[in-house]
Amino acid sequence: MMPLDKRLIALFTTVSFCMPLLGAQHDYPIQPVPFTSVHLNDGFWTPRIETNRAVTIPFAFQKCEDTGRVENFVHAAEALRGQIADKDRKIPPFPFDDTDIYKVIEGASYTLSVKPDPMLDSYVDGLIAKIAAAQEPDGYLYTARTIDPEHPHKWALAHRWEGEEVLSHELYNLGHLYEAAVAHHQATGKRTLLDIALRTADLLCATFGPGKQTIWPGHQIVEMGLVKLYRVTGDERYLNLAKFMLDSRGPGKSPYNQANLRVVDQTEAVGHAVRATYMYSGMADVAAMTGDTGYVHAMDAIWENVVGKKLYITGGIGAIGAGEAFGGNYELPNLTAYNETCASIGNDFWNERLFLLHGDAKYIDVMERTLYNGLISGVSLDGKSFFYQNPLESNGRRGRSPWFGVACCPGNITRFMASVPGYVYALSGNTLYVNLFAGGTADVRIGDRTVKLVQETRYPWDGRVKISVDPGASAALTIKVRIPGWARGQAVPSDLYRFTDVQKEEANLTVNGKRVHVDLDKGYVTLDRAWKPGDVIELNLPMPVRRVAANSQVASDSGRIAIQRGPIVFAAEAVDSPDHRVRNLVLTDGEKLTAEFRADLLNGVEVVKSRAVSLSFDSAGRVVRKNQDFTAIPYYAWANRGRDEMVVWIPNVEATAKPTPWPTLAMKSKVSASQDGQRVTAEGIEKHPEAVNDGEEPKSSSDPASYFDWWPEKGKTEWIEYTLPQASRVSQVEVYWFDDTGRGEVRVPVSWRLLYKDGSEWKPVTGTGAGGVERDKYNKLTFTPVTTDGLRLEVSMQPQFSAGVQKWKVQ
Ligand SMILES: [Zn+2]
After folding, report:
1. Active-site annotation holds for 324
2. pTM here?
3. 381 — alpha (psi -120 to 50), left (phi > 0) or beta?
């Protein structure tokens, strides 16, 4: 147990952090009620926050230990003292590996602020001691260089900061350090990590700024971090440096990290989505603290672009895998949707900040959509496996991972989940905003009184919310209760998505049983009165199951609908479907949708039931239709019961469904390939040789939907093999090559040949010319018939390139 005085200090510093800084000219006009003052006891968030505390945080720390991320600091410290063995001069695989520890320390600090835990506290102290020992005498902190300054990480380049604007991530590491340091200081009252952070920030201030060197972060976040250091210290150099870095971006540099234009001239969300949202959040912070309206105008335009053209129905953003980037306007593919978990977190950081600037509930609408759908989908229900990407459709080969080579997402989950209660309420003068609905209590300091709030609700499963207000004695207060966009017939605050039906029941609200006219101001009902102990607000948000349609410009959602109930977006998962498929289903518009709560399923979820038609091809290629039961679960809960097909946008016409193919010889074969056959990228994307016989049809050689390649192997000869279900007579194969010219390093091969299994021997087929290597089509090879139970494609790559196969058919 922490001594009482320390706990008081922790509470005081946490609360004071969210109050306007003494002497500051500007701040957000609205301030969040800190999560330390909001005590949830509901059935939805409380178990998740507890799983995060008890499971995910210790698990993530253990992964940081197991993967050498902690040892990197130890080795950097040894290198600084000249005591390192040559074998220990191992540069981290990625130059941002340090951030994973910082993020989990931040998450742990948030949990320490609400639940003292001496073991965790002292474990974090131990980590901080290791970080301190790895800091260079002038404050520089970056293990990817310090471990071996003569041969640093190749992305770090030869000199400090030289690689920053491209790949070194030196400032990205510091940004996460600052966020962690402030959290740790506020949680524990200790200055250990904060002092480390301030030494690095002082080095930055001595090196960069007007009249000194110029720098801008290749991966943003340091701007937000510097503003936090400013808030906690009052030292304006940190704020000024954040603004200097923002103003040093662009024009004419890479759109990948939002440096194509000056920040104040940007109007469209482009490039890497996590970098973008972190930058926009940093701009909001600097704008709030300086009163800069140029930043605000730019952000408002970018927000209109995202919410109008680049937001998934799940709240995910960053559609494109190449560059982890925003796509073009309305480019929102489902199967290949990237939607990094960190981008969802960044989207919520940004929308919360825009709310604090503008006081408009439309930002909370976007935040809530992301929060309940495309953000918490990033962590499994047991808290121990994660999604880096959050697609809206799966071919059944997507699974969660316990960790990633690039492990940004799990650490980000630990810090975000711990701070969720801080998004429920906000305050501006004596106006209290009720933004999210979650059962629990809150003690809100308004002027010189503490107002006690008690929320009782089963949200998001039920739209009835009871809020008891106790100001101690009668007090004039304004309480603004958010009426979510979804309860006002608005799927999103733009024309990107719309409900297809007419809302039958309106939201209603009473105070002490008396109906209040729902007259909305920026999405809020304003309750302006003298509140007294015992006053009760009752809100009723009807939650029918509704269909959502996308703007007709979103090609991938055309002929499809999504299902939403309250803030929850649903998905059909094959495990709930009679024929164990869902991409072949048609849910026609006339079918009634009903909801029921299933306490036994997925830790308790509302499911949506209906009837659908499943489509399949018979042997003659005719479509066979079957009526069957349809079930959908909340999207966030998918992939908690193994790997399965999943679909959010469900066909409502036959033309968009994928009838289950009649199984061909190739489809019935078992596939294996050289190089283990199945490998996982650092971002958790798995490559399955099963992609080549899944019966899908590629749109082109570069179609990223479903393929297999041998990348990063280059210039080699590799193989892929079918084990046929029984010995069969074959005389023809067709191969559709994968080629990602313009995006990656895979090209059609130089040549290939087909081998067949004769007993235990592989022999080439005969009677043919060379197999074709043309792009964007099937390359047919006909040969003297053989009877065999095994076929092998032997593929010779171009010298500097890899190779891959989209599809491989056999006759
Ligand atoms: Zn991430």
Report:
1. yes
2. 0.94
3. alpha
